Amino acid sequence: MAVAYELDPTFGRVVQGRSGVPILRCYFCQKCTAGCPVAYAMDYKPAQIVRLVQLGQKDAVLSSTAIWLCVGCETCGTRCPNQIRLAPMFDALRYMALEGGYKPEPSVYALHRSFLDSIRLWGRVHELSMLMQYKLRSRDLFSDLMMGIGLILKGKISFLPERIRGVSQVRKLYETGSSEVER
Ligand code: SF4
Ligand code: SF4
Q1: Residue of 26, 65, 75 to test ligand 2 pocket, by largest number of atoms within 8 Å of CB
Q2: Tell me, what DSSP letter sits at residue 3?
Q3: Is any atom of ligand 2 closer than 6 Å to the C-beta of 34?
Q4: Which domains does the chain have, with CATH numbers?
């Protein structure tokens, strides 16, 4: 039986406002989906998410796994004929999902939190401590262990973290939730 989702006619405008992305310009050419490296794993493809947002399908969008899978690579933004960048849209949708009490995909959310915590702490990602945090959060302690050790031994992952000089500026982003930091 098909799931009936409630419509929210204001949803498209709200997402457009919060993300700063002109989503309402999208005419569903699907170039974003064609280039997206993680579209194969999404329940709704990037262009379908945009369409659902336009149509006010708030529940369907905020409960989808797709919003947790975007890796922010920006490929879609470079292909879109309407200059629509989907990474900021997906960021806004993730926040809206959390605010609305929608359940995130656990392992993706664990990686998302660990990534953000690493940037808050060091001003940049420190892969080793981020992965350790991710392993603890996801309770998946041993998969890929040998590969991780191999990468450390080859010097591909640095053992000790380095804090960047302007880390306080980065932390302001977390406090304000804004992308505008005083220069
Ligand atoms: S590439 Fe742009 S216009 Fe085309 S479907 Fe994706 S967001 Fe819409
Ligand atoms: S930014 Fe997100 S939606 Fe766009 S191509 Fe990359 S992973 Fe896909």
Answers
A1: 75
A2: P
A3: no
A4: 11-99 (1.10.1060.10), 106-176 (no CATH)
